Each structure stands twice: as structure tokens, then as C-alpha cells.
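Hi support team,

I submitted a single chain yesterday and got back a structure, but I'm not sure I'm reading the C-alpha cell output correctly. Could someone confirm the output below corresponds to the sequence I sent? I've pasted both exactly as they appear in my results page.

Thanks,
R.
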Amino acid sequence: MAAVNQDVVEKFLDSNPAFAKEYYDSHFRAQVISNMLSTSKNTNVDTTNYHNLSSTEESEMVFDMVRDLQENLQMEKAMFNLMRHLCFVMRADRMSLFMYRQRNGTAELATRIFNVSKDATLEDCLVPPDSEIVYPLDTGIVGHVASVKKMVNVPDVTQVVDFKKSVRQVLKNVKTLQISFFYHFIIWINHKGSFLNDFFTNVTFLRFAQYYLFETKEPLDVTGWTIKNVLSMPIVNKKEEIVGVATFYNRKDGKPFDEMDETLMESLTQFLGWSVLNPDTYEKMNKLENRKDIFQDMVLYHVKCRKDEIQNILNTREVYGKEPDECDEEELEAILVKTLIDSEQSEIFEFHFCDFEHSEMDLVKCGISMYYELGVVDKFHIPREALVRFVYSLSKGYRRITYHNWRHGFNVGQTMFTLLMTGDLKRYYTDLEAMAMLTAGLCHDIDHRGTNNLYQMKSGNPLAKLHGSSILERHHLEFGKTLLRDDALNIYQNLNRRQHELVIHLMDIAIIATDLALYFKKRAMFQKIVDQSKTYESWDDWTKYMMLETTRKEIVMAMMMTACDLSAIAKPWEIQSKVALSVAAEFWEQGDLERTVLEQQPIPMMDRNKAADLPKLQCGFIDFVCAFVYKEFSRFHVEITPMLERLLNNRKEWNALKEEHEAKLAMLEEAKKAKEEAATSGGAPASQSKTCVLS
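Hi R., thanks for writing in. Yes, this is the structure output for that exact sequence:
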């Protein structure tokens, strides 16, 4: 006999491709597929009984699996098609999918896609919410699989006994009976340590229950189908939490599901798990999106300027006897000319502007006036009604808290306006950019809660979970953009696409820049720009250069936002001293929350027990935070020098108060020392020492 070696075998296989394919399919294909798909350790199993798949069938099946999983708009269809493919691969007559959920704290399983077979349609198998069947986790094999998170294989159901007891138990446990769509029956038994469960269709539930009480081998539907064996597998997520249960019924060759089927099912169920989790995630995202829209509508209802409120500025009912939206722009303009406060009278061009003498409605009118003074209302065709509604709504969007309220928001917008106009920084920016910067200033702290970013993180506020950095700043930005998305408030509605993208981009940068953590990172870059400006002999040449330098303009804009946000420190002393107390009061309120809610000791700046240290803290704040930005802006543009001068004057005032406080503390310390020395001196008796101290 000739020796058999590798070359002989290969030659034989090449000459007999049909035999080679048959041998490979029966001995290796199942294990190869399992190895490719399984994430767990594979078990050596006998694959000789595995059915054959043609290469065309296998390629089509895998392609359809991947394709359907990527079709987010047809999630249910993808899942259904995948289940049909799995039925084919597993040689099962039918398959059902049951989803895990909790309602009112009770864990339960419910039908999702039911009675899938190779020739079934999605319409026949998809269970709508009003027709689903719900039952507890402790019922049947599916409930058992979900509870223990392990596969269960029932090879022969014909030996099941005690059906009357099983059905009675089921009738107690089934929570929902839907006769209009699918009819579901649960058999709960104890057979060699296993539980059994199945779902049946196309007969009325009660009739089927009566049928099965006395005969175990009758068909379960009009097609004559009966259950012979069951294979049920849990579907879990990455956290090993139960998501659902997939169940196969009846191998087509009449044999029970074997160990090979279990291994293959464990591998293929990964695809089903992805298909289940994808639509669930998609559904959750849709619900979140709907919930967000509802909350946004609620917020706009309370923040948006109402029809009666707009009459405080656009009193069209009194003047024309009609609503603002029934008036043309010329009619609205005529009212605004009479209603708005004169810019010189209100001093909105001045760095020393004081809001104390203005009502909140006056500040709304001044805010509208600043858009007119920038020359952007006519240039960009801002509807008068939208402009009034927008600024009015901004004032309502600020909470009525101690410091970060509408007055602060307006002051920041006014300082931005003054830096652009009086400080001559507008020379570097277009009208469109200036409009975006003014809007950013007015919006920059809208819906502030009176607590800082660190408190949002410590308290676990949802904002901290939503925004990873610059938490409040990002919230203010999103709130402002939400208002601008409303047609009635959108002052950008007549911009073209490129213009709109630019103003939103600049607002993003400007508002996020009010996070002081970012200010410290940009100080060196701003200083280099100021230094560079001094190398130009011609101011016009420097202006032309800067106008084309987008990055440098954005850095200057970011520093302008910081100068605006801190501008109270550069106001006249009579203004600064009062505002500082408001800022401190809000800090102390946060400190109280940290002490009571978080049970933490607040830092000195937020500890009302250390209120006497306010002058010292203000001096430190000026030295380490504020001085740089106003010194550099004064060096950059001499027109901004008044801000630096007032800052330095306020530094002297706070320092004087600090020294006065320290002198009082020194006197108290000396008196305490003298008392201690007198008490510890051994010369005079206690009564005599007391007399000496009193004298």
C-alpha cells in the first residue's frame, strides 16, 4: 500500500471537491463559525450532525446581519430579519423574543417579536404595546432563564406531566390576555430540575387552555404545529444585566437541540443582542429628544416675552389699535424712537455706567438701543418686534438671584458695547462680528443658579453630567441659542447661512471664554498681541493686519469678555463697593449650601463667618486676576485707561479697609496678650489684677 502523505491527501481533495466540501461542512464548519463569533471560551463539541450551508447562503446571511444592524431607521425590521436568519442557522421551526423590563418596581418579561419562522412576515410577528403579553420573571422557562442568566435546553416536552396544575398556576400569573393579536400560553412545570415555557398563536387563549388541559399531543394552532423541544438563551448587556430572552422551538430534523446547537446559539445570540440594544438605545434617544422638546417648550413659555409684556415697549394697541405683528416696520420704528431712552442720557457709551438708577425695563430699552447704535438693525434687517422680544426675553431668562441676575447680564453687554465703541476696539471687527459680541455679552450668564462650576460638580447637578468642562458657561450658551432658535425671538433670521454660522461660532467662543480657568491660559497670547501692536508705526497698518487675523481677533474678543465680566471691579468706588457686597453675599449663600447640603467647609471667600476678610480678599482678587487684563487693554488702547485708573483707585480703597481691619485685629490681639500676662503674673491677687485691668 502506498504511503499517504500531505501531498497525496491534497491531490485527492483537489480531485474530489464535492467530498472535500462535505467533509469540511460536517467536521469543521460549525466549530469555525462558533470560534469566529464567540467571546467566551469554546467547548469541544461533536459537529458531525451540523447541517450544511452553501457558501452563497452563508455569505448572504452574514451580509444581511451586518447590513440590518446598521439600518437605524428600520430597527425592528433589522431585528426581525436577523431572527429569521437565526432560525435558519439553528434549524429551528420558530423563534420568539421576550424583552426584560421593570414596571412599578416589578421585573417582568413581555413579548416583542413573536413566532418568527423562515417564511413569516414582520407584520405577523411584531407585537404592538397594546397586544403584548406580560408575565412575571418567576414563571416558565423564559422567566427562569432571565433570572439565572443561563441557557436552558428542553429536549423532549412530550414526557411532561401534571399539566392541569401547570395551567392553573399560569392562569393566576398571566397579567395580560390579548385575543385580538397573539394568544399566549405559559406552561410552568418542574421536570428534572428544569422549567418549561412556550408561546402559541392563532387560537383563542381560553380555548387553547381548555384544549391542553386534557391532551398533550394535540396541535397548538390551525397549521397542526406542536412543540417537541425548546432551546432558550438569555441576552445580557456589557454589565451582565438581563435584556431579553431568545427561544427556539423544534429542530427541523426532528432531533432535540444538542450541545453543538447550544454553542452555536451562544455565539450567534451576540448579533441578536446588538440588534436588541440598538433599537432600545434609539428608542431611548427618541424619548429623551421628545422630553427635551417638551422642557424647552415649557421654558420658552415662561421666559418668552408675552403679548401683553411687549406692550410695555411696543405699545401698538394704544397707538395703532393692533398687535405688533400686524404693524409694518415703519410703524414699529416710530414707536421705538419715542420709547427708547436717549443714549447720552443713559450713558451707555461710558465705562462708568451705573445701573442703580435704572429699572429693569429701562435696561431692556437700553439693550435695544445698543443694537441701534451699532448700526446693525437696518443693515442686517433685524425685525423690530423680534429684537424687542429677544432682549425682553433675555431679561426674563435671568433668575432673580443676588448677583448673577439681569442687571449683571446687562452690565456685561454694556461694557462690551463700550469697549467696541468708546474703547475703539470695533476697528478690528465687522458689524456682524460686533453684533455677535454684544449678543454674547447680554446672554453670557442667563439662567445662572447663583453657584459656581465646582458646586455643580460637587452636588452632582445634571449640568455637570451634561457638560464636562465650563459647565455653567456651556449652559448659558445653549440657553441663549435656544431663544435664538425661536422664530419670534431670532434676531439673526435674515442672515444668510455663512453669516449665521459666523455669529453662532463667535458666540460660542465669547461665552465659553467667561470661564476664568480659560482666561489664565490665554493671558500670555493676549500679551504677545499687545506687544506686537507696539511694533507698528502706523495704526492703520496694524488695523488692516488685525482685521485679517481671525485667531488673534478671537483671542482679543475672549479677553474682552473677561474684562466685561469683571467690569464691576473697574467702576467708580461708590458703585464697586456696593456690587462687591452683592457678589460676596451670593458667595456666602453658596458657602451655606456647601456647609448644610454638602456638609463641607467652604473656602474663606464663601464663608460668611469670615466676612470681615472681604477687603483682603478683594485686594488679592484685583492683584492676581483683574489687574493684568485692564493693564494690558490700557496698553493696547489708551481709550480704555479709565477702567485701569478706577481699578487702581478701588485697590487703594480696599487696601485702606484691609489695613483698618488689620489694625483693629492687632489692637484686639495686644489687649488679649495684656490680659493673659496680667492673669499669669504671680504678684497681685486676682481681685487686685482685675482692678488694674479695669483701670
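A quick pointer for reading it: The chain has 29 helices and six strands. Let us know if anything else looks off.

Best,
Support desk
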